[in-house]
Amino acid sequence: MNFSSRSLLVNLVLTAVLRAEVSPPVAAPTTAEKTVVLPAFEVTASRASLTLPSIEAARADLALTPGGAEVVAADRYLQGRASTVADTFALSPGVVAQSRFGSDEARLSIRGSGIQRTFHGRGIRVLQDGVPINLADGGFDMQSLEPTAADHINVWRGSNALAYGSSTLGGAIDYVSRTGRTTPGGFARLEVGSFDYLRATVADGVTHGNADGYASFTQSQQQGFRDHAEQNNQRLFTNVGWRLNENAETRLYLTAVKTDSELPGSLTKAQLEANPAKANTANITNNQKRDYDLVRAASKTTVSSGDTAVDFSAAWTYKNLDHPIFQVIDQLSNDALVGLTLTSKADLFERAHQIRAGVLANQGQTSAANFVNVGGSRGALVSQDDQTATNLEAFAESQLSLGGGFTSVLGFAAAHNRRDTTRKFGAVTAANTYDRTYENLAPKIGARWDNAAKTNQVYANVSGSYEPPSFSEGGNATVANKAQQALTYELGTRGTQGFVRWDTSVYYAQVEDELLAISLPGPVSGTFNADRTTHQGVELGFEADVLCQTWSEKTENRLVARGAWTYGRFTFDNDRTFGDNTLAGLPEHLFRGEFVWQNAAGYYAGPTLEWVPVKAFVDHANTLSADPYALLGFKFGRRVERGVSWFVELKNLTDETYAATTGVIENAAGLDQAQFLPGDGRSVFAGVEYRF
User: Fold this and answer.
1) 3-691 has CATH 2.40.10.10 classification
2) Dmax of the chain from CA atoms?
3) Exposed end of the chain (fewer CB within 10 Å): N or C?
């Protein structure tokens, strides 16, 4: 069965389920009652979902976090092109999202997590509705994320995600789905633009009695600014929920993704400056690509009783990867997980108290084969491995009111992880045949102070983090065989005062055995455990009405300055090879902002800015770097809750030639290397959206 026929079948099944009568029979209304009863669609749509809290509930929940956290409303990024994670998190402090070549694949990093990765992310727990979508070894794919299917996105930076089951250095990102209750009715969106870009989404949300459902299908494609950068992706996201009674709800999910992406590769700095649209010759010769099919089925059941709620979750993911690069990487994986989370808000010692605790168990099995690359096709088999990743995790966080606006926070995350790989074909070495076990207990202690009006907050915490290597890190010639650990100190504040809103965190992390990249002979990369490194930085998000109108008052017009400044200083700590050098991969400063007029009728217009004022090192020896850059843009449009919304967005108006991001190597010895990934040139995008 091909992808399109599977998609049709899924939609037919979804429609049949939702049209079925699942609510208990009730007495027929009288004639008088019929004249006043609203349609079932309107009545049930207003009832909140137990499995998927609203954006207002998410904001209230994240406000309890004694550390950096944010709720990203979909309406924010839907005001312009909504394609890459760079679009989605453009105004999110602390989140560095840099597209490789205008594509879904990107460098996605929080507080220096996965600093060496520009593809297949690591160091962040990515979830859909609280259920992890990471494969069992920790990796995740940006191509499996669809921003138009999300109602909002929750971001917990760093160890602040501990209460949600993540102990990674980068934290967690949770894409919260639209449902038939939160987004009833039809939805259609079309985006077009430069480089033959097209992105089309059709969706529908329905309710029927105690059931609701939502289905979204997106087709996206582009030729790309660079040669050999064509993309063609299809994504289907569906969920069906049943309200079993007032205190119990079950939601089922089915996701299907088919993604084909050509890889233009990296250029030297000289090649970038001469012709940034060029592709690396080897990438064309070997037809380098990253294609995969993915099917994911999941469920979430929430049962509440008084002040206590319990979430049961389960998921299974099938992924088939075809990845011609220096060799053809062929991986077939099956991952399964089960989880349980308990949240109680019952008072303790006659004081307000909340505890969230849970367990998560998952296992992934991958058949990984490498073939000789013959023009992008499989040649002779080079190697074949069987890989198994197993994880058992437990976590708990307690928040107790101390009075006077103060709240204490205590928590921990415990993990037992196993990585087992066996070479079935090819030479057997310690790098490809091993059975390793990792264990860790990461503590958390913190405090939060809220003013009486609950409008301003100050917080502090000390938290541990932990991350075992994925198979990409562990299975190479250098054998990174230790887990990465860190202890992070954080101080911050967020709130609203008059016409200003802010969200600011300052952190300092001491990292041991950080997973970092080095170069190996030939086109192969490797990873080693650095002894000690430090990650420190400032995350500042702000929003100010320049007309000095308070955010609590309704006004006809606003002139708003918004910005997100991310400062990250990541260094070795007295390393025997690199001393106190800067870790390669990320610029110290990244600023993104906009200055926008907006009015009560939904119209908006104004310039945008992305600014990297400092160089970003390519190598840990700090001998080669990408240059600073500034990108100017402009957007205007109208966004309304119902009816027709539209936008026009211009990017890189000055046609700046720049490196959007780079590879990471050990030592370039001051020589120009093919490690630079050019950003897109001047471009224009437009979109129209219709909600009905």
Assistant:
1) no
2) 86
3) N
Closest CA to 434 of 397, 381, 476, 382: 476
Using CA atoms, how far residue 324 sits from 32, 139, 286, 412, 475, in Å, is 68, 19, 7, 41, 18
Give CA–CA dist 66/445, Å, rounded: 9
CA dihedral angle for residue 141, residue 142, residue 148, residue 153, rounded to 10 degrees:
90
Q: How far apart are CA 537 and CA 92, in angstroms?
A: 15
559, 525 in Cβ contact below 8 A?
no
Task: List for the chain the helix, strand, coil content (%; round to 5).
Answer: 10, 55, 35
Please compute, for residue 563, the number of CA atoms within 13 A of its CA located in the half-sphere on the CB side. 14
Report pLDDT digits (tens) over 631-669.
999 999 999 999 999 999 999 999 999 999 999 999 999
The neighbour count for residue 21, using CB atoms within 10 Å, is 10
* CB of 473 closer than 8 Å to CB of 514: no
Buried b / exposed e along 194-208 (16+ C-beta atoms within 10 A): bbebebbbebbbbbb
Kindly state the tokens that stand for 235.
């994504």
**Rounded CA separation 132/126 (Å):** 6
From 144, 125, 157, 130, select the one nearest 49 (Cα to Cα): 130
Could you tell me whether strands 125-128 and 171-177 are parallel, antiparallel, or unpaired per DSSP bridges? parallel
Where along the chain do its domains lie? Answer: 3-691
574-628 pLDDT tens trace: 999 999 999 999 999 999 999 999 999 999 999 999 999 999 999 999 999 999 9
Burial class from Cβ neighbours inside 10 Å (0-12, 13-18, 19+) for residue 367 reads middle
Strand 327-344 and strand 308-324: the pairing is antiparallel
What pTM does this model have? Answer: 0.91
Amino acid identity of residue 683, one-letter, is S
Report the candidate in 451, 463, 459 with the shortest Cα–Cα distance to residue 506. 459
